Structure formats: C-alpha cells, structure tokens
Amino acid sequence: MSGSALRGALLIAGTTSDAGKSVVVAGICRMLARRGVRVAPFKAQNMSNNSVVTLDGGEIGRAQALQARACGLEPSVRFNPVLLKPGSDRRSQLVVRGQAIGTVGARDYFTRRQELRAVVAAELASLRAEFDVVICEGAGSPAEINLRATDLANMGLARAAELAVLVVGDIDRGGVLAHLFGTVAVLEPEDQRLISGFIINKFRGDVSLLQPGLDQLTALTGRPTLGVLPFAEDLWLDAEDSLGTLSGAPVGRPDPPHGTDWLTVAAIRLPRISNSTDIEALACEPGVAVRWADGPHQLATADLVIIPGSKATISDLNWLRANGIAEALRARAAAGRPILGICGGYQMLGRHIIDGVEHAPVGGGSPVPYVADGLGLLDLDIEFANPKIARQVDGVAEANPVRGYEIHHGRVRRTTDPAWLTIDGEPEGSVREAIWGTHVHGLLESDDFRRAWLTEVATRAGRPGFTVAPNTSVAAVREAQLDLLADLIEQHLDLTTLDNLITHGPHPAPTLRTGIVDTDRA
C-alpha cells in the first residue's frame, strides 16, 4: 500500500514494561515517514521521570520526543497528554497536556479517570484528523487487569478507538511465549477481540529454532506473529525509563579512544533518578566509558562523577549520606577530582535546600516546608517553589553555544560561586574548581561545548592522553539509531499485515476461555 493511501491507527502494547514498545513505535513511525506517510506518535498516559520540554513549555515523556523525531516532527504535548512522574512509591506528580497540576496517589487518580479519558480521547481524535496514521504506545502491560477500570493507555484506549493491538514480548527475559499467551488469556472477551498479533523483540540466534513455538502460539491463540526483531546492541539512546540503569551497567558501547587514554565516568544511580538520559551524550564520545554506580567503591577510580536529576531531591540526598557516597564526594572535591551535578544533583551540591513542594510528611499528605543541609561543595542555597519552571533554553558555556531544557521547582536564592553558563543573557549554574552544576538538561548534547568541557575534565583528572574526537554528533547518532530501527521493522515484520491492521482495524480472532467476564467501564 502506498504511503498516500494508508490511513488509520494502531496500538503497540507489551507483555511488560521495557518489552520494547517505545522502540517498536519509533521504528514503525520512521519506517512510515520514509514511505511518505504523515505519521504521529501517541502515548495516552506515561509514567516516567525521563521527560523533555516542548517548544510551548510543556512536559512529555522522552520516548515520545524520540518518536516525534522519528516522524520528522517537533515534540508536542499532544503526543503524551497525561504524564505521571513518581516522587515516591505511592505519590506521583500529575502532568496534563504538559502542565503539572498536582500530586496524586492511586485512589486520587481513580477519581480523575473520566476527566483524563476525555483529555486522551480529544487529543487522539485531533491527531487522527490531522495525520494519515497515528501509532499509539501502551503503558506497562494490558495484562494488569487489576488496573483495567482506570486504564487510559492500553485496552481502554484500544476499545474506545477500535484499534487493533499488537503485543510485543522481550524474548531476552525468557518465557516470552507464555507471556504472550497469558496476556491474551487474562483479558475479558471484548479486549481479547482487539489483540491482532504479536511481535518478538531482542531475539538472538536461529529463528528456525523458534518457529515451532510461534506456530503453536498461533494455533493456541488464533493470532499471528508479525515478526521477530533481532537483538541490536547499537540501540540504547533515549531510554523510556530507568530499568536499564542497573548498578555497574555500562551506558552505550563507546568506540576506542581517539587518543591514548580512556576517560571513565561514574553516574550515580539515585533511587528516584530523573532524566537519566542526560549522560548518554557522553557515551557517544569515543574513549568515554560511562557506568552506573550506587556505592562509594564504584566512584573511587572514576575520572568524573555525575549526580543526575532526582524527582525526590532531599530523599535521594539522604540516600547519598546513608550509603557513604556523600563522604566519597567530599573526598573527591577535596582532592580536586571532577564532579558534575545536573538539576537535582546540582541542588544537592549546595549548602541548603528549602523544600515546600516535594517533601511530604511520613505516611503521606501534602508537602510541608522543610530545610535540608546539602553537601556544601558549592556555595549555593536552593528554595523549591511553584510554579514549576519548564522551558527550552539557549545560551553559552565554555565559550560555545548550548541548547537544552529546564524542568525544576528549585530557585537559586543565594550563591557566591561563578556562573557556569549564560542563558538568555542571565547567569546560570555554578563552577568551583573541578565541580560544576547546572539546572539545564540536555546540555551535553551540544557538541562543541561537550568537547571543550571534556578536554578540561581530562586535564583535571590527569588524563593527558585523552583527546576528544573532532566530529562526534549526538544528533547524528540518534538519527542513525532511528534509521536502524526502521530498517529492522522493514526487514523483519510482515508489513502487509501491519498496513491492513492500521487501515482496517482488528482481525477476527477467537476468544480464549478464561472465565473473565466483561464489566462496565463507564
């Protein structure tokens, strides 16, 4: 089917979080865009602390920003109208159409379901009217039947919009055939009706050995497997969440050093880490080896330590103290060894944090003013206040142009340290010897700035043999990964069936007898 004749929508669901929904959606979007289809991504509801700021100052999940780029579009709040940003195990900040409107728990969210359904339905209808195709991404798994009554992003969305659903399973985790079968089997009949096929993700080895299992899965469910996507080590940018940020895990696969020395980076894996993707730009550089760390012993040999953003700054600051990382950071600072703090990590480096926004009393309830001592490595006092600052920014750092975005409640109320950046003509961030801090996310994606700063870091770290490569482009790496995703989709998926599902909706398929009955979802 030609691009100009293709019209419709489709939902990509997953057996679990991190099954590959986001990358499959991005790959399908890029594949369709290359065919001349006017395509847009959509995730009705996301739960992630990895977000970006759109041109109009709204927040969306980082995965939807990547999917927008796959379509050749600027990120927009339309692509992710509901975003939940967890600040604790029980409370999340609720962002609707890009704007933070409060903090909710599970029961609060239940009472808002009708209001949020209307928002989701309106945005999806608007996108379908404007674009040829909308590729929707589910959230978590549709098999979470305990959450079905409030579901906005999986079968609730698919049933409301009569969308065919493809379920992605990650074979790298094991048990994928059972996961796919079970996902269908636990659903009520009206939801089962929409499940139209499966996609296997991250396969290693000989597909012919898997084929008998796929044939049996089709016989058991009446639904085909549209394809088996191979494991691709080169796909790692713009992770949807922080599931992959395990302690000790490497970030990316850096090329060998351009000079004679490697530069090693330890990024602290905070319990409530946010915008963990900030460090990925460093991992694009030849000779820069980045790993996640959650203990002081992992910082000892690193040339650079990064404290990333946090959705619960004071709680994560207390965690740094409890496990010995705070003391290790003080020792690094005293020895003149490089440290970078980004957003929440920057705030932790200061002397005091006054928090009347994030800090909730034990047992829950509304935030109350609370003063916490920071690490004292920068002469800086921070106060959290509303409204949240969310904006894209341009400026200058290390005599080079920079671009990024800010998402934070913190305001600098006092500092004596020199500014690190200039944003819109105003000072921003701090620098003191080998310690740098900034509220700006995405700063390290500015290629000329990153090269200049890494050169200074290497000097302070005693790595004279480290030389930055002259032409590393983070944007080019991202584009190459999107094209690789599209190539995998084109080579390994049944595109004829995919087109038919987009255009004509779900295929007739049998109901698996599970004893689950349909219920009123009004």
Automatic annotation (TrEMBL):
<dbReference type="InterPro" id="IPR033949">
    <property type="entry name" value="CobQ_GATase1"/>
</dbReference>
<dbReference type="InterPro" id="IPR002586">
    <property type="entry name" value="CobQ/CobB/MinD/ParA_Nub-bd_dom"/>
</dbReference>
<feature type="domain" description="CobQ/CobB/MinD/ParA nucleotide binding">
    <location>
        <begin position="11"/>
        <end position="236"/>
    </location>
</feature>
<comment type="similarity">
    <text>Belongs to the CobB/CobQ family. CobQ subfamily.</text>
</comment>
<dbReference type="Pfam" id="PF07685">
    <property type="entry name" value="GATase_3"/>
</dbReference>
<keyword id="KW-0315">Glutamine amidotransferase</keyword>
<dbReference type="InterPro" id="IPR047045">
    <property type="entry name" value="CobQ_N"/>
</dbReference>
<dbReference type="InterPro" id="IPR004459">
    <property type="entry name" value="CobQ_synth"/>
</dbReference>
<dbReference type="InterPro" id="IPR027417">
    <property type="entry name" value="P-loop_NTPase"/>
</dbReference>
<feature type="active site">
    <location>
        <position position="441"/>
    </location>
</feature>
<dbReference type="InterPro" id="IPR011698">
    <property type="entry name" value="GATase_3"/>
</dbReference>
<feature type="active site" description="Nucleophile">
    <location>
        <position position="343"/>
    </location>
</feature>
<dbReference type="Pfam" id="PF01656">
    <property type="entry name" value="CbiA"/>
</dbReference>
<dbReference type="InterPro" id="IPR029062">
    <property type="entry name" value="Class_I_gatase-like"/>
</dbReference>
<comment type="pathway">
    <text>Cofactor biosynthesis; adenosylcobalamin biosynthesis.</text>
</comment>
<keyword id="KW-0169">Cobalamin biosynthesis</keyword>
<feature type="domain" description="CobB/CobQ-like glutamine amidotransferase">
    <location>
        <begin position="264"/>
        <end position="448"/>
    </location>
</feature>
<protein>
    <recommendedName>
        <fullName>Cobyric acid synthase</fullName>
    </recommendedName>
</protein>
<comment type="function">
    <text>Catalyzes amidations at positions B, D, E, and G on adenosylcobyrinic A,C-diamide. NH(2) groups are provided by glutamine, and one molecule of ATP is hydrogenolyzed for each amidation.</text>
</comment>
